[in-house]
User: What shape does this take?
Amino acid sequence: MIKINLLESVTDRPSGAAMVEDRVSSPRVQTLLLALTVFGLLVLGVGYDYVSANSAHQAAQHELENQRRINQQMLAVNQEQAELEQKSKDIQGRIDAIKKLRESQQGPGAVLRDIKTRFDSIPGLYLQSIEQQNGELTIKGESPNEYSVTRFGQSLEFSAGLFTNLNIETQRQAGKTSAPSVSGDVPVATPEVVAFTVKCNYAAPKTSEQGASAQAPAKGATSQVALKK
Assistant: This one.
C-alpha cells in the first residue's frame, strides 16, 4: 500500500507570488513591461497633444469667426457712413443751388429797391432807365438841378459798399415847349432840366436786411460830377 504525504507536497509547490516574482525578474519580461510603459506614456502624450491642439484650433477658429463678424460689421458701418456723407454732400449741393437761385432771383429786385429808396429821398428826380450787365449798373434820369444829382451821387457813394466805382455825367437840356391844350392858348415852356447818367458797380448784399439798412448820405460830402454842356 502506497502512502502520500499531502502536507509535504503542498509546501514543496512554489506559491503564486513567487512565480510572479520569478517571471518579473526575467530580462525578457522586464523589457516587455518597459516597452508597454513607454508605449502607454507615448499614447497618453499623443492623446493630450491632440486634445490640446484640437482645443487651440477650435479657439482660434472661434476667434477668427469673431474677427470676420467684426470686420463685416465695420464694413457695413463704413458703407453706411459713406452713404450718409454722400447724402449730406447732395443735400448741401441742393442747398447751395437754392441759395444761388434765390440770389439770382432777388438780385434785380434788390437793385431796384436800393435805387428807388435813394430816388424817393431826393425830390425832383426822374428815373428813365436802369441797365445791369455783369455787375455794372447804368442809371439814366433827369433832375431839375445839379444839386439833386450831386445828392443822389452821394447817396450811392455812401452806401456801405453796395455801389462802388461811381461815375456821373450830366448834361443840361433845354425845356420843351408844350402844345397848347386849347386853341388860342399860349404854349408853355418847361424849365431847363439836367439829364444825368450814373455808371457804377453793384455788390449784392448778403442778406436783405443789409440793403434795407444802407446808410443815409452824409451832409457836406462831395461827389465827382462831370458836366457836359
Notes: The chain is about 55% helix and 20% strand. Residues 166 and 200 are 5 Å apart (CA to CA). The chain has two domains: 16-120, 123-228. The radius of gyration is 57 Å.
